[in-house]
Design goal:
about 70 residues, 1 helix, 3 strands, about 50% strand, elongated
């Protein structure tokens, strides 16, 4: 059964001055499991060599549908 998962990712970027900056990004993934949702988050950062990232949390939401 598909569900919406909130995936929290910790991201490190390096500024122009060489200083490392940490921040978090939240993603909403439509997936069958937490593992699949985390895989989708990893795919989002593939090829972005300047990013160091880590999935820090993944939890099922109560969202049932996204309206557009």
């Amino acid at each position: 059964v598909m569900a919406y998962w909130q995936v929290k990712v910790k991201v490190q970027t390096e500024g122009d001055n060489g200083k490392v900056r940490n921040h978090q990004e939240l993603f909403l993934a439509n997936a069958e499991s937490a593992t699949e949702a985390e895989t989708l988050a990893h795919k989002e950062f593939e090829g972005e060599s300047f990013y160091d990232f880590e999935v820090v949390d993944c939890k099922k939401t109560k969202v049932i549908k996204i309206l557009s």
